[in-house]
Amino acid sequence: MEVLLQTLIAGILLGGLYSLIGIGMTLILGVMKIINLTHGQLMMVAMYITFWLFSIFKLDPYLSLFIAPPLLFLFGMGLQKFLIDPVLKVESILPHNQVILTVGIGMVLQNLATIFFTSDYRSTPVSYATDAWYLSDIWKTAPIELSLSFSWTISFCIAVAITVMLWYFLAKTDTGKSIRATAQDLDAAMLMGVNVNMMRMITFGIGSAMVAASGCLFIPIYYLFPALGSQFTLIAFVITILGGMGSTMGAIIGGLILGVFESVTATYVGMGWAPAGRFLVFIAALVFLPGGVASLLKRHAIRKSK
Amino acid sequence: MKRYFPIIVLAVLCVLPLVGLNTYLMHIVILSVMWAVCGMAWNLLGGYCGQVSFGHAAFFGTGAYCSGILAMKFKLSAWYGFLLSVPLNVAVALSMGLIVLRLRGPYFVLATLAIGEVFRIFAENVVDLTNGNLGIMIERTWVEKTQFYYIVLGLGLLAYAVVKFITESRWGYYFVAIREDQDAAESLGINTTLYKTIALTVSAVLTGFAGSFYMVYMGYIDPQIVFSLGEISILMIMVVMVGGVATFWGPTVGAVIMVILAELIRSIPRVGVAYQTLFGILLIVIIIYLPNGLVGDFAKIRRMFQRGAA
Lengths: 306, 310
Hints:
CATH topology of chain A: ABC transporter involved in vitamin B12 uptake, BtuC
Structural class of chain B: mainly alpha
Mean pLDDT of chain A: 84
Number of domains of chain A: 1
Strand content of chain A: under 5%
Mean pLDDT of chain B: 86
Largest interface: A-B, 47 and 44 residues
Number of helices of chain A: 13
Number of domains of chain B: 1
Strand content of chain B: under 5%
Distance between the termini of chain B: 27 Å
Low-confidence stretches of chain A: none
Distance between the termini of chain A: 41 Å
Helix content of chain A: over 70%
Helix content of chain B: over 70%
CATH architecture of chain B: Orthogonal Bundle
CATH topology of chain B: ABC transporter involved in vitamin B12 uptake, BtuC
Order of helices and strands of chain B: HHHHHHEHHHHEHHHHHH
CATH class of chain B: Mainly Alpha
Largest sheet of chain A: 2 strands, antiparallel
CATH architecture of chain A: Orthogonal Bundle
Structural class of chain A: mainly alpha
Oligomer: heterodimer
CATH class of chain A: Mainly Alpha
């Protein structure tokens, strides 16, 4: 019982961070209709920025949230403007050239990181890394003992805060509304006077900034190496499929499901199998729930309105 | 002239070992032909049928592990792996097809990518059967390269003949119709699922042969090598993209270029580790400027040079 509860807590905390990665991916997918297979690599870049800020200027990883995401925002806009956008116009036999292009960008980023920073495993040894809250501290006679890691919890709370901010931005501001309009219907948005190209750039930038933020939140609790990117790219698209392509709410739920599922597999089946479990969820979602969680939400909303 | 081109190429390839190339050059030639087989197999599904697969390492690895496991666990000759890989890869392709072929566009890309990764994780974790990350090591049948060369050349011929036969038959037109517009193809009475399954299965078997050959030729495999996303699945796509999508000679040209490029860059000290960076840059440049590859955009290249000369 104790183990199960502890596993669930760890899973939810991990899931919150996964959601943040998934939201960035799903935003880009919704607006641009392409899969960004370099998502994890962007996160890796952000993590290296955070790492170097920490080791040179002793800047706390959480404070890097104000530096790395804005940088990645600009970087993402640049990628979209100078590489991905030109390819959208090129005529070719295969329709998936942009996807293959993002793979190429990812390869370059990962390899450059290997050359410049070597493939050593790195981490930011913050002073509070091993701090935790215990249930028995608050409730002396608790029948079971649970613990809550300090840095995991902080990361989770910041992830939630960022998600709420993003929701506010998309729902309430003009730019946010234009982005959603572009995602829904490109031509209609264009007719309404939305600068579609600008929105695409901004969306790619926001997606990159979101994943950069999750990089900053991940680094105190994880380690860093150049090949880490591809692993997170895979996680990001599993969440996207699980949640339903282009749905932000779906990405949040998908991230939580994946987090819980992974931590359960890691505890009860074995550490090595956690990634396999991830893909089984993915394939199951494709076969049994092709629209992802978003389709369930929609069905529920329709039933309610009737 | 153009009609005899394949025969000339074949004749040159047949007498190639008699010229007395050294072992290293032979190694490069053998790898090029092996990658050409992979490229042609991928091209059948990706180029002609328009189903871009990011998971062909699953077939490559299955082929390689067929040979490896036969040799290691059952003490048979690793060459029987070629025979075993056919039914196994057909089974893999059919079950994979059940899941992925109902999907389109980005969903298909992601699903194949995921399945390729599932195979790698499976091979890493089922240690009893595959030896896990330790990999499998077998004795190579010959020290000389010449015999390997003729065998891989045979595979290349087989792949070329199969691809040519299929794409020039009725099926080939069905494949292209599916690539261009799946709904239109369906409404014209083409059983799209059936023909996509055929393309996938044939492609899988050919890729599996290349995998089995890799095992008997290299003598060592592990999951990170033969099920690798970057080194197998994506390299296979690059071979086709560089050479030319949906062309007969594209994969071969692409394979030769990629193998030579990889060997050249890797042999430069210090820069050697960067070969994937250059691959990535090459891929980006090709996609932006020559989206149909060197063979596919040959007319465009020639025009460019003519304009430069004039």
